[in-house]
Design a protein that fits this description.
Layout (H helix, E strand, L loop, with lengths): L6 H11 L8 E3 L4 E3 H8 L6 E9 L5 E9 L5 H7 L9 E6 L18 E2 L4 H11 L11 H9 L5 E7 L1 H9 L19 E5 L6 E9 L2 E3 L14 E3 L4 E3 L3 H5 L5 E6 L3 H5 L3
Parallel strand pairs: 5-6
Antiparallel strand pairs: 1-2, 3-4, 4-5, 7-13, 8-9, 8-13, 9-10, 11-12
Helix pairs in contact: 1-4
């Protein structure tokens, strides 16, 4: 396969880290990177007892936002987080590392420190980039914004841009085509595991969010964390009669009204992996 790229490794890495900070121990905000090792030192916590996780907190009323926290390993395993719906309040012994908003800090009165030292979670491009690097795609480690990631991928000779800032109906037609087939099957669907779906704004001036396609209308990403194993992010597609989560973020944030779809590896190269 060209360049030694193995997309199944991107999927495997995403399955391992979709709900946690990336393997490199970095979480990006809109303005800077957070180094988990430095946060352990800030809060005087033992990495053997505490782990960094993404959880949901309430800002005001019923508005739910995602933050970065430390919780005890013994209490914050993935199964427990999924069961709780990633609710921060279900983990009372927690430290608030980073709040959601780019402008202004949020307060979590139930956390041990209440006000976090950081704000502005923005880790989606970083997460997708790390997954791609594990697949053998050359992407710099410091990529933190979606437009930079897309530019780097589109400059590759083996990347095909299937759609660029199209409307939601056009994106649905592409994603629904030949569903039920897999990356290594004889009759692959148009969109395959390891492809990139990016969300743009209505004015078509920039991309706001990047995701990794898992197949069968399922995506994964950071900020907010999403995956086929996250049940409360699933919607039913009446056309294909299957659950899907790729529209969940767009529904929650109406400014995501345009999508770009990148097929990173030519089909002939994908099928050569069989």
């Amino acid at each position: 396969m060209s360049g030694g790229v193995d997309l199944s490794k991107a999927i495997k890495h995403a399955d391992d880290f979709w709900a946690d900070p990336c393997e490199d121990g970095i979480v990006w905000t809109e303005f800077k990177k957070i180094t988990i090792a430095q946060e352990y030192a800030r809060f005087h916590l033992d990495p053997k007892e505490w782990g960094p996780v993404f959880l949901n907190y309430k800002k005001t009323g019923e508005i739910v936002l995602e933050g970065l926290y430390f919780v005890r390993w013994s209490q914050g395993d993935l199964a427990s987080r999924i069961q709780s719906g990633f609710k921060a309040d279900d983990f009372p012994d927690r430290y608030f590392i980073c709040s959601w908003r780019d402008a202004g800090f949020d307060i979590d009165l139930g956390s041990n420190n209440q006000k976090p030292p950081h704000t502005g979670l923005n880790d989606c491009a970083h997460f997708v980039s790390e997954c791609l690097r594990h697949a053998g795609v050359s992407v710099p480690q410091d990529v933190k914004d979606v437009d930079t990631l897309l530019r780097l991928l589109r400059n590759r000779s083996d990347t095909k841009t299937l759609a660029w800032l199209v409307n939601i109906d056009q994106a649905r037609r592409i994603i629904r085509a030949n569903l039920g087939t897999t990356m290594f099957s004889g009759a692959p669907s148009i969109l395959q595991q390891g492809d990139i779906i990016a969300f743009g704004n209505a004015k078509k001036t920039q991309h706001i969010h990047s995701t990794l396609y898992l197949g069968n209308e399922q995506i994964t990403h950071h900020t907010v964390v999403n995956h086929r194993d996250k049940p409360n992010h699933q919607d039913f597609d009446p056309v294909t009669n299957r659950n899907q989560n790729w529209e969940f973020g767009r529904i929650q944030r109406t400014r995501w009204s345009r999508l770009s779809i990148l097929l990173r590896i030519a089909k002939s190269q994908r099928l050569a992996h069989q």
